[in-house]
Specification:
The protein is an alpha+beta fold. It has four domains: 139 residues, conserved putative lor/sdh protein from methanococcus maripaludis s2 fold (Beta Barrel); 93 residues, Efflux pump adaptor protein, beta barrel domain (Elongation Factor Tu (Ef-tu), domain 3); 132 residues, RNA polymerase II/Efflux pump adaptor protein, barrel-sandwich hybrid domain (OB fold (Dihydrolipoamide Acetyltransferase, E2P)); 100 residues, Immunoglobulin-like. The chain has seven helices and 30 strands. Strands 1, 2, 3, 18, 19, 20, 21, 22 and 23 form a nine-stranded antiparallel beta sheet that branches. A seven-stranded antiparallel beta sheet has the order 24-25-28-27-26-29-30, with no helix packed on it. α1 packs parallel to α7 and α4 packs antiparallel against α5. It is rod-shaped, with a radius of gyration of 44 Å. The two termini are 31 Å apart. About 12% of the residues have low confidence.
């Protein structure tokens, strides 16, 4: 219960941080006075509140480095993982709908007027085969033409023995004309053959299915008066179906016609159906920013039914890439930030360029290297703290002395014993040399430690100072206190007779 309360207080503090950042930024913009020079605003020897705020990219939010001791990391849930170079499985996932294969649809209609007498296929959804009888039709026009055809055949038989060549030719023309009309009306060939053999017109002609499939629309009724062009049945061959899915615009470069695709459906858990990319539509939906892609799948047993929702997956050849968990990247749209763990609770904000996503991992194109550590837990907290520390920079930095700007560059070397420094009493050694390498003796050397405040963790700014005594040969030694583990900003200041000779700022990590 106590831990839950602590987490709740921490989250509430984060919300206050955002407001504080806004106010402090406004104050920062107005802080310098009109007469303040750049040198006065940033005096040598002034320890920073933390590492310099990092402008991680054009038009980006200023962020500073963050130091959090291990106990607080555990409390707020900060975790780190190693950046790895692994195989990036490039996949495209999309949701689609099963559709009819439009190239396998057939429409049954007539080219002649008539009346349906017998109806053999009488309900929607009925399975039929090619050549199966659909209905019989009584048509005065067909009956008249059949009579003409029969009369032409009989006339040809009568004039067979005639000596007049024109009579034979005329009879053949009449037969061909009547036969052609019957064929153009789609009378079955076997019906015409029967008519020729029996020489007896039929009052009703049987029409048959032009395709194998299922009736998906039916307008035919017994006794219905039909006109030329009127649709009576729509037949769909479901041996092959389409799946049309919406692919996001950014994933379109991964899709190729002919690519193998896999589909899964809620109706058949655990089963996968194989198909291929058939067609990519030539336009993008402006509202959803997706492109419709058509896939073709064999449909053995008719298990894929038009109207079903389908999950489509495309897998591409894999390559090696630098990968981090997706929750390690803070993406504001304009920039992407990760926090790189430098050790001892020190986190550095760094701008990265991201690539493709694969599951719960994301490719880093630029910004971090293999083997580095990045934060994956509580990154929102790190970001808030980082922005706040950048905004506070310049408000809490202590003024150390007011000597003139140094006129020479000193070579200042710092060591601690033990190394790295520990919490509590430590021994420090500084060696000072002039630009020619000659030791600088007889100077006053001081060492200041500073750690910026972390308001979100109710921790005030901390500072301490140690005076070092000359040991000869440009060496100065002394002892000092380090109050807590973490990253401290140390400033070595060298003066003589009240005149500052030089300073050096460096990070010191205490364990």
């Amino acid at each position: 219960m106590k831990r839950a309360l602590q987490l709740f207080v921490t989250l509430a503090a984060v919300l206050l941080v955002a407001a504080a950042v806004y106010v402090l930024r406004a104050r920062t913009a107005k802080a310098p006075t009109p007469n303040a020079s750049a040198a006065e605003q940033s005096m040598p020897g002034m320890p920073p509140t933390d590492a310099p705020a990092k402008d991680v990219g054009p038009s980006s939010t200023a962020r500073g480095d963050v130091t959090i001791d291990p106990r607080r990391q555990q409390l707020i849930g900060v975790r780190t993982v190693t950046v790895k170079r692994e195989t990036l499985a490039q996949e495209v996932r999309a949701v689609g709908v099963v559709r009819y294969d439009e190239t396998r649809l057939a429409d049954v209609n007539l080219k002649v007027e008539g009346f349906i007498r017998d109806l053999f296929v009488d309900y929607t959804g009925q399975a039929i085969t090619k050549g199966q009888p659909l209905f019989t039709l009584y048509s005065p026009d067909v009956l008249t033409t059949e009579n003409e055809y029969v009369m032409a055949i009989k006339t040809r038989d009568l004039v067979r023995e005639s000596q007049l060549p024109d009579a034979h030719e005329r009879a053949d023309q009449l037969i061909a004309s009547a036969r052609q009309r019957l064929a153009l009306w789609d009378l079955p060939t076997d019906e015409i053959r029967t008519l020729e053999e029996q020489r007896q017109p039929s009052e009703a002609v049987t029409f048959r299915s032009p395709a194998t499939g299922f009736v998906i629309e039916k307008q035919a009724l017994q006794g219905l008066h039909v006109m030329p062009g009127q649709s009576l049945y729509k037949i769909a061959d479901l041996s092959v179906v389409w799946v049309e899915a919406d692919v996001y615009e950014r994933e379109l470069p991964l899709v190729r016609i002919g690519q193998r695709a896999t589909v899964t459906l809620d109706a058949y858990p655990g089963e996968r159906f194989m198909g291929r990319v058939l067609y990519i539509y030539p336009y993008v939906d402006e509202k959803t920013r997706t492109n419709k892609v058509r896939y073709e799948f064999p449909n053995r047993g008719g298990r894929l039914k038009p109207g079903m929702y389908a999950n489509v997956e495309l897998s591409m050849p894999s390559g090696m890439a630098v990968l981090v968990p997706t929750n390690a990247v803070l993406d504001s749209g304009k920039e992407q930030i990760v926090f790189v763990a430098k050790g001892d609770g020190y986190f550095e904000p760094r701008r990265v360029t991201i690539g493709r996503r694969s599951g719960d991992q994301i490719q880093i194109v630029q910004g971090v290297k293999e083997g580095e550590q990045v934060a994956t837990g509580a990154t929102f907290f790190l970001d808030s703290e980082s922005q706040l520390r950048a905004s506070l920079q310049g408000f809490e930095a202590p003024q150390v002395g007011s000597g003139a700007v140094p006129t020479q560059q000193l070579d200042i070397t710092f060591h601690s014993l033990p190394d790295p420094a520990k919490v509590g009493e430590n021994q420090f050694e500084v060696m000072v040399k002039d630009p020619t390498g000659k030791p600088v003796d007889g100077a006053d050397v001081s060492l200041q430690f500073f750690m910026a405040a972390m308001p979100t963790m109710n921790m005030p700014a901390m500072r301490s100072e140690a005076k070092l005594t000359p040991a000869g040969g440009g060496v100065y030694r002394g002892s000092g206190q380090v109050m807590m583990a973490g990253r401290w900003d140390a400033t070595v200041t060298v003066t003589r007779g009240g005149q500052r000779l030089g300073t050096k700022q460096l990070p010191v990590v205490a364990k």
